[in-house]
Amino acid sequence: MLNEKLKINTMLSFTLIILMIGASIQFLLPIHLVNPYEYFYGKELKTFQVFHIFFGGALLPLLSLTVGYIATKVKSIMKPLILSGLVLLMISLILNGQDVLFLAAISGLFVLLFRNRPMLMTLVTLVVLVVAHVLLNVLLKALNAMQSNNIVYSAIQKFNDYVSVFRTSDIIEYANLNLGTIVDLPLLMLLIFISIPCALIGSLLARVKLEEILPKYMQVVLILVFLFGGLVIKLIEVLSVGSMSSTIIGEYIGGPMVAIGMFLSIWVLACYMPIGVQNRFNHFGQYAIVYYLVFSTIMGIIFYGIGFNLYGEVQVLNAVGIAMLVTLSTLLFSQFLTKS
């Protein structure tokens, strides 16, 4: 039981590190309002493309996979899920309206409905949701986009209004704008067709005991299939230079595939990592939601008008570097607490 707890906290730690780095650009500018191929150019555009290939559309699925896995393994998980969901919602409202990770907590609660039921019921539900997603949200929307204006144009006026608010120190205005952003995002679609299916996949992986079914080399093959398959789809999205149809396919198919590859990589690391190394990540994973709140607060202070006011001013690579530095600082702080 202790080893399982260490494994889960190690998985949470690596998931958290990816989420922190992936959230970096959300603190830089309202990326949901711009076509990157209009806004960025030259080396800056190439940097964004590399970042987007790995992280675009992958953060919510990755956390949902991890939450689904943990919700199946840990018996008393309902209260932590509700608390984590409320904290993540607070982060979205006050600090980062583009962050919809609170949906993963809702998906975790949904997984609890299937935890003690036959696996076949979970599998059938998953297949229905995935097929509906591919038909309704990917193929249909992509075909409609190709038959109409297939370019995503930037909402420049909204972008300027957004940036001007976050360059002030008015936290109430942040909350109002973030609430508008959250409402404008397709939350129901993201919950039903992205987050819940990924959580169900995580739950199934927890129940089938993959380490006992597949030999190590097949585990590696499975990781490569999802990771590189997703990256190829994301690369096609990047090479299409911002068309709406390729963006839909990249975000809704490529992103979740990359997330599954990342999750399986994290799972393998946690399974075969020495217990002594797992202990170094135990505190970071055990208090993951606290560290994510600290990370988001520090990033808000750095980028918004309440602090150093860098919103919309720095380059993508610098924003990622700042996020990595803050992530490393929180990780080192957790190591200090582990020693003490």
UniProtKB/TrEMBL annotation:
The chain crosses the membrane at residues 12-31, 51-70, 123-140, 185-205, 217-236, 256-277, 289-310, 316-337. Keywords: Membrane, Transmembrane, Transmembrane helix. The keyword DNA-binding does not apply. Residues 221-338 form the DUF418 domain. The keyword Repeat does not apply. It comes from the Bacteria. Pfam families: DUF418 (PF04235). InterPro entries: DUF418 (IPR007349). Coiled coil: none annotated. This is DUF418 domain-containing protein. It comes from Phocicoccus pinnipedialis.
